[in-house]
Design goal:
The protein is α/β, with parallel strands linked by helices. The protein has helices spanning 11-20, 43-53, 76-97, 123-140, 161-164, 176-188, and strands at 2-6, 25-30, 36-37, 56-61, 101-110, 148-154, 194-198. The protein is globular and about 45 Å long.
């Protein structure tokens, strides 16, 4: 398969690429790295990205920033940043890609643990994760041509613990191998409309 991986240079993106790379053609994309660059929060930029690449068999999104801050310090703009990046960026990949993905192809998005196991300062990411779960469940019933859509929801990766572990006290980190397998299940399997939890 020809698979676009957005956010391929991050820890989660690398886990997805490591799992899929031996069996498929991987096109790596990011905001400032990869074979192509695009800001996925801009729908026009996503449409242009698809025009440049051409038909794909699958899209894997491991991208999307959120704002980590105490609840009482959020402004509308700082809260909307996470929603525009993590939620609408990934939604844009689906909306713009519906006519680009081959019959029977798939979209795999990425959320995370915080909507089901919250931490302090994680309300923006938790809100985004919950929105993505609702999106894939609903979008799955409207997809035509055998298209599928899922979202992978990993805990904190072991490889990410040195940087972010102080925020995730008591959380059990997950292996990159297990996270990669969740992307394999979504891309190479038959599930649709599912939240694939890795914990």
């Amino acid at each position: 398969m020809k698979i676009l991986v957005v956010g391929a240079s991050g820890d989660i993106g690398q886990a997805a690429c490591d799992e899929l790379n031996n069996r498929h053609e991987i096109i790596k994309t990011g905001r400032s790295s990869g074979q192509y660059e695009a800001d996925i929060s801009d729908l026009a930029a996503v449409r242009d990205l698809y025009r440049k690449i051409g038909q794909l068999d699958a899209v894997v999104s491991c991208a999307g920033d959120a704002t980590f801050a105490p609840l009482n310090e959020f402004t509308r703009d700082s809260f909307m940043y996470g929603l525009s990046q993590k939620v609408m960026g990934q939604v844009n990949l689906v909306i713009a890609g519906l006519d680009t993905i081959a019959d029977g192809g798939s979209f795999t998005l990425t959320s995370g643990v915080l909507d089901r196991d919250p931490i302090r300062m994680g309300v923006n990411a938790a809100t985004a994760n919950g929105a993505l779960a609702g999106f894939v469940k609903s979008a799955a019933i409207e997809m035509s041509r055998g298209l599928r859509i899922n979202v992978v929801s990993p805990g904190l990766l072991e490889v990410s613990e040195p940087r972010y572990g102080k925020w995730f006290q008591g959380h059990k980190p997950v292996s990159s191998i297990d996270v990669g397998r969740a992307y394999s299940k979504s891309v190479e399997g038959a599930l649709t409309g599912q939240v694939l939890i890795v914990e």
